[in-house]
Amino acid sequence: xxxxxxxxxxxxxxxxxxxxxxxxxxxxxxxxxxxxxxxxxxxxxxxxxxxxxxxxxxxxxxxxxxxxxxxxxxxxxxxxxxxxxxxxxxxxxxxxxxxxxxxxxxxxxxxxxxxxxxxxxxxxxxxxxxxxxxxxxxxxxxxxxxxxxxxxxxxxxxxxxxxxxxxxxxxxxxxxxxxxxxxxxxxxx
Length: 189
Fold this sequence. Notes:
- The chain is α+β, with helices and mostly antiparallel strands.
- The chain is 42% helix and 28% strand.
- Helix 2 runs parallel beside helix 5 (159-188).
- It is elongated.
């Protein structure tokens, strides 16, 4: 077993350290495909999500007040906002975050190869990171939204704005999921 294979084996045997303690279902097949290939190993992933979080400088474990990797229903989301206004948070932000996959590659050549596939699949932000030990690739879609939604326990936006933001967020999530599927299909060829 070469150095990369040992590294991959140890990475894949680790306990999931994500805040939800599992790979979200919409990106699981892509992660499995990547990990089935000899020269690649996933490090982190997210299929895209919508969150409400306390606006803080440091990322702390209790910042998330709401999180969903699925499409959002306006009526249910408004109920979540109303619940949050009953708490005492200075500023709460709405974020629709794009899909993301970070992976290690066995060589610069393999890194460039996967980079090319990701671009063909529509991932708009692909970053190549090379360290002494690893060739890391970060793949991210570009569709996202972010804005403050609550300040001093008051909702800052009206229902019309929220409906538009939720519609756009759902469209963005769907675009990301199509890119995940396209990349998965490209890698299976």
